[in-house]
Amino acid sequence: MRSGHIKFLTIILIVLIGGIDLFAQSVTIAVSPARGKREISVGDLFYINIVVKDINANPEKPTDVGGANLVYFDRTGQSSSFSSINGKTTQSTSYTWTATLRAQTEGQYSFGPVTVGGIKSNIVKYAIGAPMPSQQPNPGNTTTPQRNIDPDKPEYIGKGDGNLFMRAEVSQSSAYVNQAILYTVKLYSTYDAIKFIGATASPKFDGFVVEESKDISTSLEYETYNGKTYATAIIARYIIFPQHEGTLSVKGNTYTVSVDQREYYRDPFYGHLSVSKPLQLNVTPNELTVKVKSLPTPVPSDFSGGVGNFHLTSSLPAQKFVTNQVGSIVYTIEGTGNIKYITLPDLQNLYPSELEVYTPTTESNITIGRTNVSGSIKYDYSFMPLEWGNYRLPDIKLVYFNPSTEKYETSVARGYEIAVERGTGSEKSQTQATNTFDSQLLPVNTNLSFIHRPYVYGFFYWLFYIIPIGGIIIAYVSYKSYLASHSDILAVRSRKANRMARKRLKRAYAYMTAKDRNSFYDEIISSLWGYLGDKLRIPISELSRENISGKLAMQDISDKDIDNLIKLIDDVEFEKYAPSASSTEMSDIYERTIATMNSLEEAFKKAKNNEDI
Question: How far apart are CA 303 and CA 410, in angstroms?
Fold first, then answer.
């Protein structure tokens, strides 16, 4: 009986010790080659499995794995176990995370340790051998990629297959210039698992301004298409704004998709079995066309360029104003549409001449939503009263085109009556000399003459009339010349094109310093198109690479300057939608933009001098 008790206690002790070991927190790493492989060769896929046991934390995505590139990293498994001792139940859970890697360089490597929740893992070692010989492509077939017969490597298919494809759609096939259009790319698949989706090229939106939306699918949904059920996901969503009338095309970018393909076979002992085989496809969505209509005519002279639905308001932060001290007024545009490209009227021409208005500072709060771009932009204008008195800050109108009503509409920000008081160091009228009367009689001059010549016969008398009349004539001639030179709004904008572009480049430099990539490229694109539109006297909505090249050539601009400009525009648009960008790339684009504008400005001046001669 005593021997039986000893055996029972021994068993209990072993179970307790095993239970303690079973539920201990741990992190374990293991390396495994691809299915059917004993070794890892250059070009092969292999896997590093990280098993996290009883830790409420996730491992970080590996960033540096020796000799290999990371293809995919995600949680691939979960297991739970239970133990009940003396009525007390204990649970243990472990999660497996798998890093799918492609071997790149021969050599001996190690990975680890990995720390998860303060617990360190083991270190694993692995070797990558020389690449295995692969089948050479058929020299007689230059259009279809050669399919890989190695069952352990991904099979490449050029344009996808019936079990995986992409469809592109636009929210409307006909729209006005600068009207927002939704462009989406949806993935359809019947494969067991999608492991990786990556864009290998940027989309081609020639003739559009593009805003990328982050509102894409986070999980798969099921949809029946042509009588077949597919797992679907929206993988790209853009808001595009056509810039000129005509039929514009949208070419989708190419994606690389890695999936698991299920293959079935019959085993003589186990019957019907299946196995997953890696498959990689290069998929391109269908091309689309959009018919773009020009805005209705006549276009209002004070049209802001806005297409959508907007509202303009104003606010006056301070109520007391003093000469020679800066005040401010804030205008806010809210709404949906191409809000980032709206321009307000020139306040210097609308405000009283006694108020000097400065360039505003802007604050944007823009949201690229599911179907449109919306938000608000604040314009904080500073102005300085030069003389005291009462002044009227006029109402400011925002004229925009509403595609819903197909009409030009106006939003009015109310004006204000302000009273400006005298400040220190005020204008000449502030102080006047005081005349005094001296009652003491002056001595009489006895040398009086009876000969008196009237003043009207003197030259200085008429000089008092000649000078004012001459001044009036000069002022009138100068005023007429000013009106003539400013009556042509396009000519005025052409003269100021370089100065306006420099202001935008200053904002682009600030965004570059702050590493705000999207805002930086927006300002660079706006400065280039705005400069060309003003300089060539063409509305921005009608600009394209073709008419820019033609107009510049007509003005005797060299082919080299034209080619540099077109290449710069292409590079800027590519970098804006590239997968990643560095501050070095932004700095290079910024310096090229300044150099291109300087070269164009010198070319315009040289062409103008040749015309004058």
Answer: 9
pLDDT score of 445: 58
User: Which helix or strand (DSSP H or E) is residue 259 part of?
Assistant: strand 255-267
pLDDT for res 388: 92
pLDDT at 151: 38
CA angle 468, 472, 476 (to 5 degrees): 170
Instruction: Name every residue whose Cβ is closer than 8 Å to that of residue 323 and which is 6 or more positions away in sequence.
Output: 385, 386, 387, 388, 420, 421, 422, 423, 426, 427
For the record, the structure tokens of 242 come out as 């056509």
Give the distance, in angstroms, between the CA of residue 268 and the centroid of all CA atoms in the same chain.
59
Main-chain phi, psi angles of 243, to 5 degrees: -105, -15
In this structure, of 77-81, 243-247, 367-371, 533-537, the range with the lowest mean pLDDT score is: 77-81
What b-and-e string marks burial along 566-586, b requiring 16 or more CB atoms within 10 Å of the CB?
eebbebbbebbbeeebeeeeb
| Rg over CA atoms, the chain | 38
d(C-alpha 240, C-alpha 543), whole Å: 16
- Residue matched to tokens 């492991």: 195
Q: Please name the residues in contact with 563: beta carbons below 8 A apart, sequence gap of 6 or more.
A: none
Look at the pTM and tell me if it is higher than 0.85.
Answer: no
pLDDT in the model for residue 550: 82
Reduce the DSSP state of residue 609 to 3 states and report it. Answer: helix
Q: Quote the CA–CA distance of 128 and 111 in Å, as a whole number.
A: 13
* Tokens encoding 146: 């050669």
Using the predicted structure, report yes or no on whether residue 426 has a pLDDT greater than 70.
no
- Residues written for the chain: 613
288-293 vs 174-176, strand pairing mode: parallel
| Whole-number Cα distances in Å, 500 to 229, 359, 396, 490, 597 | 55, 11, 21, 14, 12
Instruction: Reply yes or no: is the peptide bond before residue 298 cis, omega within 30 of 0.
Output: yes
pLDDT in tens, 29-50: 999 887 657 789 888 888 899 9
Could you give the residue ranges of the DSSP H alpha helices within 330-458?
347-350
Q: Are strands 396-402 and 303-315 parallel, antiparallel or unpaired?
A: parallel
Among 328, 325, 318, 307, which Cα is nearest to 379's?
328
Helix (H) or strand (E) run with residue 384 in it? strand 373-385
- State the distance between the two ends of the chain, measured CA to CA, in whole angstroms: 126
Which helix (H) or strand (E) covers residue 246, if one does?
A: strand 246-250
Residue 480 has phi, psi (to 5 degrees) of -65, -40
DSSP helix/strand/coil, 320:
coil
- In this structure, what token pair is assigned to residue 77? 């498994």
| 191, 272, 280, 518 from 265: Cα distances, Å | 17, 6, 22, 51
49 forms beta bridges with 30, 98
pLDDT band at 314 (very low <50, low <70, confident <90, very high): very high
In this predicted structure, what is the pLDDT of residue 20?
42
Task: Please calculate the CA angle 555-558-560 and round it to the nearest 5 degrees.
Answer: 145
User: Contact, 125 vs 112, CB < 8 A?
Assistant: no
Distance CA 386, CA 427 (A): 8
Measured distance CA(213)–CA(296) in Å, rounded: 29
* CA gap 182, 372 in Å, rounded: 7
Average pLDDT of the residues in 8-26: 52
Amino acid identity, residue 16? L
C-alpha neighbours within 13 Å on the C-beta side of residue 43: 11
Which pLDDT tens digit goes with each residue over 135-145?
Answer: 333 333 333 33
| 410 contact partners, CB below 8 Å, separation of at least 6 | 397, 398, 399, 400
